[in-house]
Fold these 2 entries.
Entry 1:
Amino acid sequence: MKNKKAWSGRFREEMDPLFEKMNQSLSFDIRLYKQDILLNKVYSNELNKLGIISDEDLNKIIEGLDVLEKDIEKKGISIFTDEIEDIHMGIETLLVKKIGESAKRIHAGKSRNDQIATDIRIYLIDEIKEISILLKNFLESIVFVAENNLDIIMPGYTHLRHAQPLLFSHYIMSFFFSLERDYERLADSLKRISIMPLGSAALSGSGFNLNREKLRKDLGFKYISKNSIDAVLSRDFILEFLSNISIMSITLSRFAEDFILYSSEHFNFFILSDKITTGSSIMPNKKNPDSLELTRAKTGRILGNFVALFTVLKSLPSTYNKDLQEDKERLFDTIDTIKDVLKVNKIVLDYLELNKTIMKNSIDTLSFATELVDYLTLKNVPFREAHHIVGKIVMNCVENQFYLTSLTEKMLVSYDKNFKGIKDDWANIETFLKRRELEGGTGLNSVKKQIDYAKKKLTNNFTI
Amino acid sequence: MKNKKAWSGRFREEMDPLFEKMNQSLSFDIRLYKQDILLNKVYSNELNKLGIISDEDLNKIIEGLDVLEKDIEKKGISIFTDEIEDIHMGIETLLVKKIGESAKRIHAGKSRNDQIATDIRIYLIDEIKEISILLKNFLESIVFVAENNLDIIMPGYTHLRHAQPLLFSHYIMSFFFSLERDYERLADSLKRISIMPLGSAALSGSGFNLNREKLRKDLGFKYISKNSIDAVLSRDFILEFLSNISIMSITLSRFAEDFILYSSEHFNFFILSDKITTGSSIMPNKKNPDSLELTRAKTGRILGNFVALFTVLKSLPSTYNKDLQEDKERLFDTIDTIKDVLKVNKIVLDYLELNKTIMKNSIDTLSFATELVDYLTLKNVPFREAHHIVGKIVMNCVENQFYLTSLTEKMLVSYDKNFKGIKDDWANIETFLKRRELEGGTGLNSVKKQIDYAKKKLTNNFTI
Amino acid sequence: MKNKKAWSGRFREEMDPLFEKMNQSLSFDIRLYKQDILLNKVYSNELNKLGIISDEDLNKIIEGLDVLEKDIEKKGISIFTDEIEDIHMGIETLLVKKIGESAKRIHAGKSRNDQIATDIRIYLIDEIKEISILLKNFLESIVFVAENNLDIIMPGYTHLRHAQPLLFSHYIMSFFFSLERDYERLADSLKRISIMPLGSAALSGSGFNLNREKLRKDLGFKYISKNSIDAVLSRDFILEFLSNISIMSITLSRFAEDFILYSSEHFNFFILSDKITTGSSIMPNKKNPDSLELTRAKTGRILGNFVALFTVLKSLPSTYNKDLQEDKERLFDTIDTIKDVLKVNKIVLDYLELNKTIMKNSIDTLSFATELVDYLTLKNVPFREAHHIVGKIVMNCVENQFYLTSLTEKMLVSYDKNFKGIKDDWANIETFLKRRELEGGTGLNSVKKQIDYAKKKLTNNFTI
Amino acid sequence: MKNKKAWSGRFREEMDPLFEKMNQSLSFDIRLYKQDILLNKVYSNELNKLGIISDEDLNKIIEGLDVLEKDIEKKGISIFTDEIEDIHMGIETLLVKKIGESAKRIHAGKSRNDQIATDIRIYLIDEIKEISILLKNFLESIVFVAENNLDIIMPGYTHLRHAQPLLFSHYIMSFFFSLERDYERLADSLKRISIMPLGSAALSGSGFNLNREKLRKDLGFKYISKNSIDAVLSRDFILEFLSNISIMSITLSRFAEDFILYSSEHFNFFILSDKITTGSSIMPNKKNPDSLELTRAKTGRILGNFVALFTVLKSLPSTYNKDLQEDKERLFDTIDTIKDVLKVNKIVLDYLELNKTIMKNSIDTLSFATELVDYLTLKNVPFREAHHIVGKIVMNCVENQFYLTSLTEKMLVSYDKNFKGIKDDWANIETFLKRRELEGGTGLNSVKKQIDYAKKKLTNNFTI
């Protein structure tokens, strides 16, 4: 029989090539070759301690793996022959080719079940660190933009209708605080990712008395898995990651949606750089915010990856099932996607121009209506009545196209006598801002405090 | 400026390379090159009729496109330079290189918006036809297996507990009828896919008076889109396809789950071929049903693709938005996946062996309890009372480890006098089957009729 | 033992009350009481034909069920006692109370497995008919609004940037054509819903020789299920419905998104009626488009229902499993939701006011850039060059704040000599529209044809 | 105008009743009445400090709210009139009815936007505490069952095929370690939930200088929101919760799947209590594991809720949009579902019986094949060769129906001379277990350590 699978001993017939194609994971788990080589080095060292691998063999193995790492880096998948199922068998096979029989000793007492679970955890820890750096870079751009546009005024929206004025710096800082939580979720998740499964073998634990504590240290894990069954079958750490990135993508979809709106002709608050926009194949007039639209769209892709793996895992029996092979492509895709998104949106921010005058002038005077309500409230009119009175004033303005701020004391008093004595500056933007210096409010000092907090956080606490 | 984008006229600055990487779709929409080339041929012909492309230019274009098609087939993506955004610009650019200025005329009056919508519809129609052939092949295997194992008896399950006996042929034919509906859904969807958007241009319709009826015929569509806005923005036809395949994958996940169970040591009804099973890297005893586990898992992947595109489309404003670019990778992945799954599971069926004796002997005699109830019912005992009486008999069997079929008339009469005169064959498998010859029942003739229906359907009505 | 469950014969212990609460479905499947009563009448009639129910009993049963139907209509769930599991047991139990022993005969030869599958199909057919009527009503409003605003001009958008002008009537009719396909999907699905499972019993077919053809006619189904296993376990028809409504909700989310934008202060194209807007508890100035925001949000809810049931069904083994009980709440919720959405959005349309002047005046003159390109193309300039030349003109306009339409022949000729002789009306909206009278274009006659088509379709072909 | 909405000042026309029905949230947010009343008390106190509410009014308000809380507890939704939109307006309206004008003062300086975000966070914190107690109870049952069945042996499975033996206690403890992480996720999430939005008002911060630190303390929050925009629009904390419960439900779906399998006739390892099983309406023989099937199915429902809210939130612009109203029903449903699931599955465990002999006897002797491989490996045969040799032995056993453990030294030596001298106990279960005493392995002492860890954890660290 031509079948060269490492496990072919008990099989009479070869795999059908159609199944072989579906079954193989090498085309995507090749991404884990560094992690797998690291693991094999550390593990071979332990087998040496246990007397299963001789000193001489160990040297050959380590050197062989070193060469192999460079070879794969250079040649990629072309280095492997067709019948290779996955990166583990791929590396073992190449190593046998390179150093001979010594290589046949490296799989003693481990299984691909604990090996892949270990590889992917090492990989994911590294990627989370990279993502957190990209996120930090993006947040630094947010803070930079906020600080450099501290007192720019813009309309604030609820239900996409003018609500109350905002400082642009306050607005843009809202993304900092959303994304800070997205960062914290990633940081928290490491506790559950940095757990070493190695030593669990297929499901019941290795038959050799491995020093798992030593393996843990050498591989850079924080914890050791406490139950071998749980260790080989659990993919909750990938689900948690996919979910965390999904939730982050929701924040970024708000960013994209806002920026698409605010840079559209009808708002015209923001000017987007040519660097991150595109044109049309037919209409020479177009300058399209493709970077932001793609950012918005990636939210769907990222959710899809979570749902895909979730549904894969639903109602799988204990312990390892081949279904778990589906975890990797979804994971890799989410990682690649969020990294692109974070990089590109940093450019969006870094080259953002504000149409400051348009932003300020867009503030609808009706946005100060709540100030009138508060005025009456402070004059002891029950809030709900004050609200109703001002509602009538607003209706009058809308129907007769008055500016709310142009109403004189006299006109106001005709609605309610408590307006008697009201000063002109009640609906002044300065007054409005000053009244909102409580923590989290859109007052200038409040925003400065937010920025100070952010800068400190970015300096001290943003290393995973 | 080095920027060579076809739309670069109004831009001062070049795209950032990070954004360029995120923005390009060539790496995946290259898959549509044949469709795009066909479209360009047919469309250039129409521009020729309108006097926009001369006869001489047309000849050059057609010949150039023919050569290009072969070039791309041979060299793949390596034929394109880095700044190419998508397959449309790719083909236009290469054509310009090959035949010069004539190629710069082909985009008149069309937009990438209607072009991509047209390309992808042509592509999808072809793929649905291929999928329906693979599905037909799989169904033929089902019918073959049913016909060749017509009278094999096995336990039927509800709640994964023994319920009533079944003919294996009846059981396996249940997949035919599920998948027949999955096929019908695909067939129905063609009405909504075979609609030509070409002529809709960017959103408002082409400025040239194209003969859309001629374009339709030449491209092989059934219908012409009736509203240009709807034509360029709608992706419901892709959602419908992704959903149809998702629903089909649910049927296949049942197939996989059953086959995993029935081929496990505890059931031992089915023997799976070595061709579609694998071994373990550590445990030499293992023979694992990876093909079926992957089939089961692909259900998640396929759902993920639907959810991804659905979420992308949610609340997009009119008309075309770049978000739509996310449709293709999810579509292609679902197409590739279902084709693999159908091919591999046909092999599962074609090499299936049955442990017929074990299947038959596994029938729990308690599975005939309903026959006793029916017996009493026919003796005028109200059904609900009969059910309760037999429930007591069952409890006695369970607690005392009797076979239900070993109960004598006397013992039965002690529960209810109406059992007086009951013959031994009341709980005989032959009697059981004969009592179920109504349409859709598990009786032998009923199953033969099902098979006859299926064979006729497969012969006459399975061409999309 | 107090346990009064109909199937309690073989059980020693009672259900735990916590499980009883989780297990019961009466609180939601009570919605199917009419369908269940109808089924019981038709089925009892058949049992009478088979001699299992006497004429006298049959009369009692039919009369009892008639009374029961009215009782349930009046008193709702309060009519049932606590231990009732589901509507089937509920009706049988109440009937026994009302008419005594005769009622204990009605369940002979059927199972809750085929009964619920039959009930829910009858129910769903009815609901689809209702939904299609609501959809028709909504489409009639679209056509009405289109016809009454035939020649209103507005900007058309791609990437939420001004692209080319559109007729409002063309724009609004785009929803007709999207929703027409959504309707067709529902219509097509009926083939797969109107299949009667009754007679399949638990899984293997009824032990009594039922006349299924007669049952089919009496229950109003088009087809009879052909395989009892498939009949009791398949829920693909519910998935298909949930998916069809999901896809419809995507169209409606576009409607909502557009209307939110177009009625916002920055666009100010549409005025929404007070009837479907709300105010703020704190800001008296607000008038919020809550109806549209909820419409947009319901898309998520409706998708969630599809995903929920899909994931429930994934990898269930044959045949019936209790998991299937989860189908109903998700189905009912989607039905209720889409009906509300269709009703409320019809009001949105019926009371819509257009700010026609603002719509027209919002057209950016750059939107005519493609006309200039086409002009050059007709003068034999290769399209791609023409596009580039006009791109330069656009850039000049943007940077110097010119109106594109204010460029004189002389200025144009300075970009390209082929502009020599160009008339003033090249970028006239009238010319623009006239150039787009091809099928599906935004030309006036093209839109009239769309409306004519729609009116005919609504009159003749919109009855499921 | 009859319109009694609190914000009706600027509106001419009443809401359409169809929209009113769709718009209202009282039917579900009534669940938050206690939280809303608490908030109003604490907030009124603060308004009193600021001089906006007099001492006398404050007393009336507090007393009124106390009475109201009892009224709502007693009468439920019937206490509210039809036009009430939500719980906030409901409570204000009832309070006005009860105590008159004083009640009209309570909404000064707050908005429903910050109010609902505060209410739901208080509510969710409480519910997470309840869920963590239910989870703790379930985990205690796991540990109890493990400790009381410490040395029961069963087959372990990969790919649902016999792999290697396991201690049942090791197997059942695997759920402890999975669920421990599910618990930790909930615990971690509290940092992001226990943040008080109150004081953010509609979006820009309250116009009154509220002492937010005092409000925080009185409401029991850990933190104060730092940016008012982020505070009113963010629902990531709900997504995180829905995701955390989803991930937990995957663990529980494995529990359910295993228990369904292991209690089926073919495995017959577990006997399920009558308390959590059901019968069939037609087949008196059935005893169905409905509790476990429903547990498995709820996974879909819980995922659906996450997907629903996720899709709702995707690409919402800043700041509050009515779409957010869709968060509550999905949240409540997930909370109710997981609580039922945890309660019922505790009963499953507490009344579980083991068929210990069957479990032990089911161990396939081939499960010891890896021991043979390890034996050779220790004799210096390279692992991969040893694996291949034993594969051949296994094939021989399978094809000739030998027990692997019945092979004599002589027979083994015929495969490889290194088997010379092998003792009989190499494939003994005792040896197998002893070889797996490394941390996390299935050895008896290893499992004891796991149990010790779990007991300590449950005693000390399980209070959120």
Entry 2:
Amino acid sequence: MNPLIGTDKMGHTFPGATVPFGAVQLSPDTDTLSYEVDGKYNKNVYKYCAGYQYADKTIVGFSHTHFSGTGHSDLGDLLIMPTVGKLQLNPGTVNDPVSGYRSGYTHANEVAEADYYKVKLDKYNIIAELTTTTRVGVHQYTFPKSDSAHIILDLMAGIYNYPDKNVWAFVRIENDTLVTGYRQTNGWARTRTVYFAMVFSRPIREYGFQNNTKKEVYRGFWGKFDQSKNFPEMAGTQIRAYFNFKTEEGEKVKVKVALSPVSTANALENLRAEAPDWDFEQIKNAGQTAWEKELHKVEIQGDVALKQNFYTSMYHAFINPTVYMDVNGEYKGLDQNIHKADGFTNYTTFSLWDTHRALHPLFNILQPRHNADMISSMLAHYDQSAHHMLPVWSNSANENWCMIGYHAVSVIADAVVKGNAPFDANRALDACIATATHQSYGGLGEYMQVGYVPEDKSNASVSKTLEYAYDDWCIAQMAKKLNRMDVYETYMKRAQSFRNVYDASVGFMRPRMSDGNFKKNFDVLNTDEAGFVEGNSWNYSLYVPHDPIALIKIMGGEKRFVAHLDSLFTMQLPDKYFEATEDITRDGIIGNYVHGNEPSHHIAYLYNWTEQYWKTQERVRMILKKMYLPTPAGLSGNDDCGQMSAWYIFSTLGFYPVAPGSDRYDLGSPAVNDAIINMDNGKVLHIEVKGQGDKNVYVKKVLLNGVLIDRRYITHDEIMNGGTLTYYMSSKHN
Amino acid sequence: MNPLIGTDKMGHTFPGATVPFGAVQLSPDTDTLSYEVDGKYNKNVYKYCAGYQYADKTIVGFSHTHFSGTGHSDLGDLLIMPTVGKLQLNPGTVNDPVSGYRSGYTHANEVAEADYYKVKLDKYNIIAELTTTTRVGVHQYTFPKSDSAHIILDLMAGIYNYPDKNVWAFVRIENDTLVTGYRQTNGWARTRTVYFAMVFSRPIREYGFQNNTKKEVYRGFWGKFDQSKNFPEMAGTQIRAYFNFKTEEGEKVKVKVALSPVSTANALENLRAEAPDWDFEQIKNAGQTAWEKELHKVEIQGDVALKQNFYTSMYHAFINPTVYMDVNGEYKGLDQNIHKADGFTNYTTFSLWDTHRALHPLFNILQPRHNADMISSMLAHYDQSAHHMLPVWSNSANENWCMIGYHAVSVIADAVVKGNAPFDANRALDACIATATHQSYGGLGEYMQVGYVPEDKSNASVSKTLEYAYDDWCIAQMAKKLNRMDVYETYMKRAQSFRNVYDASVGFMRPRMSDGNFKKNFDVLNTDEAGFVEGNSWNYSLYVPHDPIALIKIMGGEKRFVAHLDSLFTMQLPDKYFEATEDITRDGIIGNYVHGNEPSHHIAYLYNWTEQYWKTQERVRMILKKMYLPTPAGLSGNDDCGQMSAWYIFSTLGFYPVAPGSDRYDLGSPAVNDAIINMDNGKVLHIEVKGQGDKNVYVKKVLLNGVLIDRRYITHDEIMNGGTLTYYMSSKHN
């Protein structure tokens, strides 16, 4: 396992410390850049979604919140930097690091482990070590001898930041070791506040603030005081604080920072509950033990690279969603009120357009309790939503509406259908229906009326239509399970809407207008502003995960369908189209197949519905090999909160959930030599792979508990019941 | 009683609706202006401390929070304006009211009563009526027939406003009659949020927002939606909302807006608890009944003008401080956490430099329970203060440090000495001591060290020294009562510090420097930057309320002292000095005596310590007559949260608390013909005035229960025990 995988270029993972699903992700930021320059979006900021780029030479500081693998971002709260010497309160620049508090570092002096990060800050000769509990970031700084040692708390710093993003900050020096406050931002989460309680292992000698807030009414009154030094309360939009110490050679100053979505009082309660003592090693050991437990839910055999990839994928899969609740059960709701979670742990960071595909299905196997709580969190979101909708992409008590569809219904249906639904499933179905009938959401009103989203009414109309159709099928499956057959009938009909955007005359899904005609200008390779999002028509035409049989039929039968699939993987995508493809490096595509973007994730498995099903095995193994490398630059696209990793985990084990909401996992080609899946129900599934080898990518036959599986899938129950799944591999396809 | 008194020019009172000590002050704003123009303080904004100026011709709207009589301001939250016709979402200007939503009005169509305000909005032919409960503002708008009736909620509007003051606003349309949200500002209260729940008596037909927020990260995602219309959640720094209706001729649309310092959930709870129904008349009647009860605690006989002045003073005295707590007992503390008041009602709006003088002493007679709760609120403030200090000028969970001294100790000592202290008085004394020893506060460290505030260390040093000395005496009195004699000794010594800034060579209090020498440049008539604040040396030299005997002695004896007093009232203050005098009209001074500024409030009573004590009677009656008129322009200076009114009430009744912290009220000259004071302890004090008349301003003798009072004061117990106080008046002094 190596947290540095994905930290170079497009993976957008972070190398720092976090526990499974932890609320704190304490990690170095090598830069963050401004989201806007001269009022315009700054394309370079995209690199810094996770705050860290492996190629960078300086570290600005260590902030407490990071998304893992996203393509947009926020967070980077409460950046802390230890320094010695002349106090510098600005971060400095890459080209002139001496001008600010940032420091050079080298990878030789860097250690990244699960819940532990260590680096030497060359400029200051300070060793920085980080670990966390669920809600507390723990810093251990080993200083040189200095009369002028500082710990800076930069409340201006943030990821995807620019001055207007900082709405407010409030800091109080409660006593000589305790600081409380909050940071409020207007970012991806539009109305977001992070509260904190910060304690030092040693008394602060003196402290002060730099307040860069532009304007303040009544500066006059505040002017009575020298607020810059030893004045115990500060507030404004642009604040930096510093705390001074005197250190002996090798002396450790430790800092614990607890977060809360609710209040500084709760942050302090979290701190006292989770990290009452100062034993850094003990906290680190507890975090690493927690990770060991999660990672060893699957024990695989394979070469070093495979293991690195696999366990790093497991690690990345269990970072998001994140706990969004204090130890006392309180959390901030979408209505910005404080709620108390009744019988569940509240989570946030739902990148559902990505994660409904494989991550949540993976959770139903490996994290059933967490997944159920995540659904309870989504239902709480629904209850609190002014739109009366389930989350689309939600974070920190905010809906940011990123991407399309209403894939929360897929996550819920998958759990219900698979029997992992310790919540009121009928209430959940009602929430799904309310969400799927919200007229003003992304052309949904028109979709309900005419069976497709007209491109002239709502853009990315084909992607939307296809994804709504799949989501509707999920609702139907859940309704069927709950024996609400009227709902089943209604949504099974809606699920066929994919037919309405298929243009048989060209053999592709194609945007359609309000008047019923297909859009005139149409380019099957174009993604942007062509009726699609994160995938062109060539890819999206294959997006009917819930009914490949019908898809094959409307596409002209198996031969033409396979030809379409083949072409996808083998064609050469012209540069101009590649440039419009978001989020991925050139290595991240195979022909016109873009693994870094999710709409393609089921595609390799679609051969399974044809007689050339062995091509699924071939393609999957190729993708596993080409798209995942155990290096910092090894991820070809954003990890997307674990979806890319979940794809890797499933595919490496030999099966994949093409259509979450069904209980079926399509068989692929395992890349392991052997695997054991330890499930929370006490059952164990042993995956034996006979005749594994680099060239033996084809599956001759599969046996479950010694009995031949005469179909191309296994079911959820078969997995959960444990036993032995035996793959017989070959270098030749059947 | 007439709420319009003080609304013209300098009174800074508001004409709108509020209940006694209510959290809501729902009142028309005729303008607010920007606090800054081109980055500089806008002097014109000063007129609009209460949002309303009687001479103005247009009303912008009705906002829910107003200070009463302050000299700086904040608030003006949640401005609502009903309109018909084309929707206009900007307020327009005075010179071009047609350009915005503001409307002309005339005083002929205006009614201002206790907890009731009514006005016709000429532009729209709408009758607006306002009333309140403690936490709910209730609007009743009688519309003409219109297909296009609007109610605007302007979250940009505010008093002492400018764009950067608006930190954040958040609004949710919960359903077709309920809207919730909050407004967060950076004003006099630096970190302040007002939460609200707003209900309409009729379903909203359609609604929308104007979002003038400059920048937003991820506008792109939000851009998916048309957020301007029927999108149920809005957030930003600059927001206006509108709600559309269709009205018949004479149709009433009612709006109830509940406030909370804590959350929208609490605001809704407040709404349901205090104003569950839609009966405007009933709510108004309840409010007016509450006022009747408070105002009739004193029943006076006198002419119409006197009664107008007196009952308006009573009204203004019982507006501030204001309730700052939800019906469930929750409030926001100075630490920005949510606290629950344990056994008291939490108050805010403590203008203590003003109100410790007469308002809180008045409360100890007429509002003992409220005063005790106010002190409990101050002690909660102390507990939550990062400075570990009692409030100086606090509002809405913020300390704004306005003015000087630590006069909370006076309020507390007065209550303790007078036996109205149902709180832990020893804990209160500890809080007073902690406050009085805060080294970095306004030269206090130096004061403690050398016995005065050196002008070169802290400005207004004479005012500070004198006020600290008085406050210290208060602490000593409280300590004596609590039998903590060491504290008593210490603070009685500190109370003599006034001696250290008296320059016998000139006969005036005079700024002194660190080196012990008096400041060279010294002008006894100058206020600004001369060692004083809101009073020149001529006035401040008389500021030893706790020890006039010593003052007379150091000033060279009674003859010179009386000459100083006389000169104050009779000299002609040159214009250049008047211009530097804040807060008052030219009518607001008598000679060099500035009644509109508080440091002079005890001065007329100082003659009582001399053989020319009859001059107290003469001066008091003159001040009552000249400084208080029953007209909109009738207040010569800011009412200062009721302090000016409290002075009027006491002086009109014939006695005044020169030194709160003692149990003594100095006898003056009653202006009533007769008065009955009904106290909460069930006792009644009857003030009989024999031989009252305009020229009979002199008191021949005073009898308490038929027994001659052979001193120039009565005690608190004498008042509280009730009975009959008989003044015998004469046109000639004794």
